[in-house]
Amino acid sequence: xxxxxxxxxxxxxxxxxxxxxxxxxxxxxxxxxxxxxxxxxxxxxxxxxxxxxxxxxxxxxxxxxxxxxxxxxxxxxxxxxxxxxxxxxxxxxxxxxxxxxxxxxxxxxxxxxxxxxxxxxxxxxxxxxxxxxxxxxxxxxxxxxxxxxxxxxxxxxxxxxxxxxxxxxxxxxxxxxxxxxxxxxxxxxxxxxxxxxxxxxxxxxxxxxxxxxxxxxxxxxxxxxxxxxxxxxxxxxxxxxxxxxxxxxxxxxxxxxxxxxxxxxxxxxxxxxxxxxxxxxxxxxxxxxxxxxxxxxxxxxxxxxxxxxxxxxxxxxxxxxx
Length: 322
Known about the structure:
Blueprint: E1 3-8, H1 16-29, E2 33-37, H2 40-46, E3 49-52, H3 79-91, E4 96-101, H4 103-114, E5 119-123, H5 139-160, E6 162-168, H6 175-183, E7 188-190, H7 198-210, E8 216-221, H8 228-237, E9 245-250, H9 262-280, E10 286-291, E11 294-299, H10 312-320
Parallel strand pairs: 1-2, 1-4, 4-5, 5-10, 6-8, 6-9, 7-8
Antiparallel strand pairs: 2-3, 10-11
Helix pairs in contact: 1-9, 2-3, 5-6, 6-10
């Protein structure tokens, strides 16, 4: 192993830059030549590589997003796209690849690994829905961003006796909504894994008002069948009595932005360093994630497994909302 490539793929996550920084500097310390791939798998297929030295990754540990750029590359799901990527790796004499990303990105990692490319994946997604990791790069920062917004909205909600439907990211997984709802003291949480009937939610809000609450916060995952827009539409159409004046706030991509928190910087650094050390030791075909507070190595194939959400936390949230 002499020449190592690193890319970031899929949705950007706070901490990706810290991971790239660690791959580069620890790789160099282990005698590797490290190259960044611009714009994810799209750049891999087009051969958009750039040599990275220690100074090239200076001052990025505190930057959100990814300085290498990222894309969602549908072509990597095809045999032609995968073969194209492999050809570019061979043309540029790359001996290995580090892929920093979530489910879709690691599915591409698996495809390349099966075709003989040495790959190490690093678990990075704000959704925290990747098996092989207790917590993924970016998830903690995204939760903190959502909670900060909820705290601010509660001030207005209380002042005007309103209920806010706060929609957070999570197309297929309710982790962000669940954790932000618990930390933000929400009156209700709506997630894809435990759908709630709109009228039942209206009854809950009305009951909260009867118990003396001056406001209500409902955290809703965007991927829930009854997302914020659907709930607001139902309440308006059926003239449901929720006990409060209703408002909708969608946090959207603001959750991805901003500098990574200290925890995300730390785990990203540990995972990036472990990836470089793995290649130096000629070990690959694995996904690196944080399990029980430490770097864990799992077969790449684990990225295709479903990661269950602990629904006992939703029960706890319901109790705490009383």
